[in-house]
Amino acid sequence: MDTKTTVISPEQLRRQAEFCDEIKAYWLAQGVTPVAFVDTYGCQQNEADSERIRGMLEAAGYGFTDTEEGADVVVLNTCAIREHAEQRVFGNVGALVHTKRRHPRQKIILCGCMMGQSAVTDRIKKSYPYVDGVFSTHHLWEFPALLLRLLKTGKRVFLIEDSPGSIAEGIPVCRENRLKAWVSIMYGCNNFCSYCIVPYVRGRERSRQPEDILGECRDLIAQGYKEITLLGQNVNSYGKDLALGMDFADLLAQVAQIPGDFRIRFMTSHPRDASRKLFDTIAKYPKICKHFHLPFQSGNDRVLKAMNRHYDSAQYLELVEYGRLVMPELVLTSDVIVGFPGETEEEFEDTLRLVEKVRYDALFTFIFSPRGGTPAASMDDPYTKADKNRRFDRLLQVQNRISEEKHRAYIGKTVRVLVDGRDGDLLTARTDGGRLVRFAGDDSLIGQFLDVKITDCTTWSLVGQRPTAI
Predict the structure, then answer these.
(1) What percentage of the chain exceeds 90 in pLDDT?
(2) What is the CATH number of the domain that holds 461?
């Protein structure tokens, strides 16, 4: 793969905008208002990519629907991180043959991380002839050209050529959420963890210019957004490729100094690049949420080395200790992989011991899923699925107990929350640390920061009420 970053020029993006105008004219000539269905799998970066896909579709005259049935174009933005996600995509693509039979003019387009794998695109070419278009993450900015070509020729289009990672500023964005916004600060990954396909399908790390990020954040705040999440496969690596003398902590500080009533989150962090400076920055600025998602993946040093994680358990624990020293209120969450190839029972016990020591507020837990093309996929693994399921259940039991204990400690406290929606009869909100709170109230409170007194809890959420005015 070519590793040189390509900056997409304003002229190239203007041409794509012209293609959007041509698509709009195509439908106007037929007296039709087309509708699109965009379905997203996987991580927040995919969600951010889908917002740009919707933005380009909106510029091309499309409205949106929440079902494949009757849609003029169906776009599936795919995820390659685990086998289960891939199988879901193939299952849903298989079902689309029926909707296309009922609506022959429907165009079916696949994009996202799965489309960066040649084995996947070869399978689509051979076994799914009703799929009209495919593009990898590197070609997202060319989506209007692909769609126009499909409409004009009716022939299949595959934009999957090996390409250097690109930065394209100025793609239109259509955000479904009017309260919380994703802002990508960088793309790709240089870490090459032995189990992860991301560097192969999203390319090498490339950072956006700080003025572009800050400009986007200012615009969002001016529009009334209350929460901005800065995104990257490893946000802690931000700026290394720019040679501007600015790192992620510096960027975070600049965003935090933008005037307005809002808060900032970020994800995801890699422990090898997390610094004391970053923790100090989070502690310094009230607008930065005191929540750090810091994946450790395994508590055993041999397994961490086999994963190519570039830190050991002692270094990880030192980071946690410093973070809690400067922010006693810090909420810590993490990712854990159970059943990495060759992981022994004692090595798994090290993971349980680390979880007990750190006492995370929540964990995202996964059973190892081999990804073709990664080193871990060919590693010897004598343990059965049953062995891994048993370990997985033990980990859940430990973490669920800790999560409930952590939540019980909130009872009686008053916390600041951002009210973000409704779940049945109760409003939903998130604390600064990302904890879900449910409480009674009317819809006029949605979008506001409020103080809520915690009265009860479950393993996964908090129950609250608005304090009575004196």
Answers:
(1) 94
(2) 2.40.50.140
